[in-house]
Amino acid sequence: MTAKGPSTILSLRQIRKVYGSMEVLHGIDLDVRAGEVVALLGENGAGKSTLSRIISGAVQPTSGDMTWLGAPYAPATPRAAMDAGVGMIHQELKLLPQLSIAENVFVGRYLTKGGRVDRQAMEERARAGLRRLGLDVSPRRLVDGLSTARQQLIEIAKAMTLNARLLILDEPTAALGGEETQLLFRQIERLKADGVGIIYISHRLEEIRQIADRIVVMRDGAKVQEFDSGDVPVRSIVEAMVGRSLERMFPAVPEPAGDDMLEVRGLASSAGTFSDISFSVKRGEVFGIAGLVGAGRTELVRAITGADPISAGEVVLEGRTITPRSPRDAIRNGLVLVPEDRKLQGLVLDHSIEENIGYANFDAVSTRGWIPAGRLAAFAETYIRRFGVKGRGTQNAGELSGGNQQKVVLAKWLARNPKVVVLDEPTRGIDVGARSSIYETIMDLARQGIAVIVVSSDLEEVLGVSNRIMVMAQGKQAGILDRANANDVSVMELATI
Asked: Does residue 265 share a domain with residue 227?
């Protein structure tokens, strides 16, 4: 055992969870020891989130027993779990945008002095936590307007102030780049040295080898395999997750055969997040954009697609200057964006799959200003089948797994037959099986002659799907690499200029 400290702090025995007639967890046994990282892996729908929510008090098990520090454990609420010393960082960000960073870090447990909120103490402790994670930002700043990556770091800093004995980290690096991930890993090593146990959920399998002491694999609500070390070949982990041999993660990348579809000339952000960006994308080309968090990647693609204002430059489509001033302009010209946060920006979660697909395609489903239900259902069903969405058209989008939600976002925009598709973090928080499907979709678009731009914090991903890669650093264009010359070293050299 590589774990530091042999004592078991959490034990689960025969944990079952039933919703109606469906059993989603089938008798799970799990032990977590002090000072070790247990990686909990599996495809979306495998039961990882349900199990984590049971441990953290958000969901009650149907049957089974838990012990915590040797005593019976059955938290009725997340607060009860937190008071016991169990904290959880959720994949979906839960920050309150109109509060400051410090207020978010301590929300629900404000520090007090003399019966009043001690803002100075909260700000000092929040600042220290942020600095440990490499985030140089004032704790007094409002969360509203911060990038997804920075919000994720704040969530992590929040959990680290809990002084918990067990932390559950659900996709903590999904929005982080390589440098931020390594800062987090150094913090995890310090927590391990202090005897903190960690349950680590991630779809980034290469990082599991760096951080995990043991690996537990779940599939279809059951624990199917356990590895006594984190140093396990990725192929072995993937095959345990999907229950079959997986020959290849990334499909063959077709060579673009056409002329330039899109040109970006001297583009600069009104907010100063990037400047002097110029590149072109050919018909049928997959153009990757890489860089560390804060390099300006998301801001750039939002500006290209009209979501953010620019101060200089132009966007040219098929030789014609379009420079969209709004998303409507971009969409009208055949330029669509699949945003990085599908829950907040890509979908209306409490509306149906049909409605979500229809919202981007009123011109195709409406008749004289009305939308016949039958016409909408038939239109949506075509794209539900085409993209393999596992869900009924009348089902709410919020009930779907992350992979299926992303397929709905893709479906609603690709139904418009766009000329350029921009994908910002297309597989964030998505399991390996759904990733493979999305990669195939990207290659299908390229084969149809569509220009595709992919922004990703996952370096393996951007290398695996791109014909060329533009690397950004501190809002500048550091260089463009051909596929033959692009590797993790050459990309990171440019990203850290």
From this structure: no
In this structure, the answer to whether residues 110 and 68 fall within a common structural domain is: yes
- Residue ranges making up the domain that contains 195: 8-242
> What was the pLDDT predicted at 248?
54
In a domain, 3, yes or no: no
Query: What does the pLDDT look like over 31-89, one tens digit per residue?
Result: 999 999 999 998 766 888 889 999 999 999 999 999 999 999 999 998 899 889 898 88
pTM score, whole prediction:
0.61
Of the candidates 191, 216, 242, which is a domain's last residue? Answer: 242
Same domain as 312, residue 169 = no
What does the alpha-carbon distance between residue 54 and residue 8 come to, in Å, rounded to a whole number? 18
Is pLDDT above 60 for 2? no
Give bridge partners of residue 479 from the DSSP assignment: 471
Instruction: Based on the fold, state whether residues 234 and 85 are members of the same structural domain.
Output: yes
Q: Are residues 83 and 222 in the same domain?
A: yes
Rounded (10°) CA dihedral 356, 327, 431, 443: 110
* Interval 240-274: pLDDT, tens: 877 755 455 688 999 997 899 999 999 999 999 99
CATH number at 194 reads 3.40.50.300
pLDDT-derived band at 1, boundaries 50, 70, 90: very low
Report d(CA 276, CA 189) in Å as an integer. 40
Up-side HSE of residue 48: CA atoms within 13 Å toward CB? 33
**Is residue 235 domain-shared with residue 266, that is, in the same domain?**
no
pLDDT of residue 460: 83
Is residue 250 domain-resident? no
- Structural domain count of the chain: 2
Statement to judge: residues 236 and 266 lie in one domain: no
Residue 122 lies in a domain: yes
215 plus 318 within the same structural domain: no
User: Tens digits of per-residue pLDDT, 307-327?
Assistant: 999 999 999 999 999 999 999
Residue at 2 is within a domain: no
